[in-house]
Amino acid sequence: MVESVGYAHESNPDAMNSAIAVIIPCYNHARILERTLRAVLAQTLQPAEIVVVDDGSMDHPESVIKWIANPRIRFIRFDQNRGAPAARNEGARGTTSPFMVFLDADAELVPDALQTMLAALDQHPGADFAYSNFYWGTKLFHGKPFDVDELQKRNFIHTSSLIRRKAFPGFDESLKKLQDWDLWLTMAERGSKGTWIDRVLYTVEPRHEGMSRWLPKIMYLLPWKQVGLKKPKEVERYEAAEAIVRKKHGI
C-alpha cells in the first residue's frame, strides 16, 4: 500500500532544493520518526524526494506522517515485516533523484548535512558515496579515509551516507545484519570509491531492538567459552552475519 500525505509549514523557507532522495525505512520507530523527519525538513539543502517505508510496523508510523502533514513526504507500507534491506530497496525503486541517502528512522541530521554530503561528492567526482562521522547516543563513531583493505577488515561506513544512484547495486535482502558493510564491499568490488567527511553530520538514538542495536566492542572480544559464560545472542547473531559477509566477498 502506498499513501501520500503532507503539510507545508515546517520546511526551511530559505533552503534550496537538491537532486537528493531521502529514503527512511522504519520498523516500530513512531516515537522518534517525527524528530527525524523534522530534521530533514529543516535542511539547508532540501531533498527533492522524501519517502518513508514502513516495514510492517505495529506502532502506526502513518499517524506521524499525517501529523506532520507535508505533501512532499510519501509513505509506503509493507503489510508484513520484510527487513530493512527490502524497505530500502523499495524506497530506491520509488524515487528517481540521482543521489540517495538511506536515513535510519532514528537518525537526526544536523541542518547542513545534505548540503555537506552533496558538496563532498561534487568536490570528488570520482567518488560514488560520501560518509561522515556520527554519534551513536553519546558515543562518537569516527570514520577514516576510504581504503578497500581497511574496509575488508571491518566496516567503518554507516548506512546513512549519500550515494550516486547510478552506482547503487541494491541491498542484499537475504542478510539480516551488516547489510551496510555488504553494500560498501559490493560497490568497492565494482570499482566504486567513497569520500570521508571528517565531521559529525547526524546522531543515532540507540535502541534495545530494531536497526540501532549496539554492544561495546569488548563484548565481541571476550573469550566467553574460556571464562565459562554463555555468549550473548546479539554477539552470536553478529558473528554469524559476519561469517556470511566474509564468505560472500572472499575476505
3D structure, described in words:
The longest helix is centred in the last third of the chain and has 17 residues, at 233-249. The chain is 31% helix and 23% strand. Helix 1 (30-41) packs parallel to helix 2 (62-68). Strands 1, 3, 5, 6, 7, 8, 9, 10, 11 and 12 form a ten-stranded mixed sheet that branches. Strands 2-4 form a two-stranded parallel ribbon. It has eight helices and twelve strands. It has one domain: Spore Coat Polysaccharide Biosynthesis Protein SpsA, Chain A, CATH 3.90.550.10.
Question: What's the gist of this structure?
Answer:
The protein has 251 residues and is α/β, with parallel strands linked by helices. The chain is built from eight helices and twelve strands. Strands 1, 3, 5, 6, 7, 8, 9, 10, 11 and 12 form a ten-stranded mixed β-sheet that branches. A two-stranded parallel ribbon has the order 2-4.
